[in-house]
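Worked example

This section walks through a single chain of length 452. The input is the sequence exactly as stored; nothing has been trimmed or padded.
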Amino acid sequence: MISSRDFQNPQDARYDVGGYFRSPRLELVPHIPQEARRLLDVGCAAGEFGKTLKSIRDIEVIGVELDPQAAEMAQRHLDEVITGNIETLTLPFPDGYFDCITCADVLEHLVDPWNTLLKLKRLLAPEGTFVISLPNVSFFEILFACVQGFWTYTDHGILDRTHLRFFTPLEAQRMMENAELEVVTIEPLCGVSEDKLPRDSEGFVALWGIRLGPLDDRQYLTLRTFQTLVIARTLPLEPFNAACQAFEKGDFMRAYRLAHLAKKEPVERRKMLLEETANRLGYLILPEEIYREYVECNPKNSDALAELAICLIMSNQTGQAKPWVQKARALDPENSLAVGATGLAALALAQYDTAFRLLADALERGRLVPALVDAFLDVAERLGRFSDAQELLERRGIKLFQHIAVLRRYAELLERHGEHDRAVEYAKRAAAISSYPEDAQRVLAKLHENTP
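Given that input, the structure is written out below as tokens.
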């Protein structure tokens, strides 16, 4: 049956219920803070999202919309609608006016989303919330097509022909952090399930004759993510103090985020708190910029130079690490961290015997650095020398170590090598300090399953 709709301009369908400008974006509603009383919806379209929000709570919603027809429709539902380009508009609101700002699939359409984010940030109250959705350009369909030479624009979707900027989840996070925003959540908003893009036992995925991998869990999730949700907050007035308070409360993730962003605090104090929280979170290294900042403040400190080298090697930048190792050893030829960095480089080159010798030397003479201990356990297992590694680490005090991921891995290796009771002991220690008790408890439960 043919209807009059078949003869309409396809553009008109954008304004129909469920069309481009009439999506209620219900998936974003649960992420709007309950305490928010004033919301700015940038790219409000025809106002369906704000209409839904106002129907379920007492909230003022002000919209900004580029399309005049959609903006006129939004006027019926929102408290106020400003028509124009958010990049050039001067919004008539005082600093800190809004509790929440939403940008649902907006930033990718802008010439300069980075400065626009800063412009909007001033309108948020202290600890106000951004709720942002972005298409993920590293979605598997785009990535595999790109490998085959295709980058074809379409009328909608990730390669919408009106998109000017493209983001992966990691780059979205960096954009927020560069704007000095605390990233509370970055997760898939929609994507495909594992059965649609299976990962084989070796960690590879295959499509259209292309095999990609091995992929860790984060990379695999990114590949399956079509759209990314980012929730970010403006910083507290005293972010470092807030980080310390979060640490004392056991909220290690927030402590880590805030310590990273507390740029006015001396880097030595930030680095110390970051290391403490990283231990509880299981991170082997800190963000590269922290090590670089620490080196800038301590250019003659061989440990600082070597730590930067370790970070670069762990981030697959081994070539860039070499001059920092050389500088560290020029200042102190016996520096254990520089020796350890050289061991990491050997491991990256699959020179396992050399890596074992250098890492053992570094750990014998220096402190137990998480990245070095983890790499030492890795290479020891590859060489069948776990007992040698165990003897060294026990002598050097791994029993007092405070790093959740290393303790958990050590427990798993002890179990694999038949030392069940000791494995349980280390798993319990990991569970006691973990910021994710459920993860540590799963390891412990698995070990108890093997109890004779």
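What to look for: Strands lie at 38-42, 60-65, 80-83, 98-104, 124-135, 181-191, 205-207, 210-212, 225-234.
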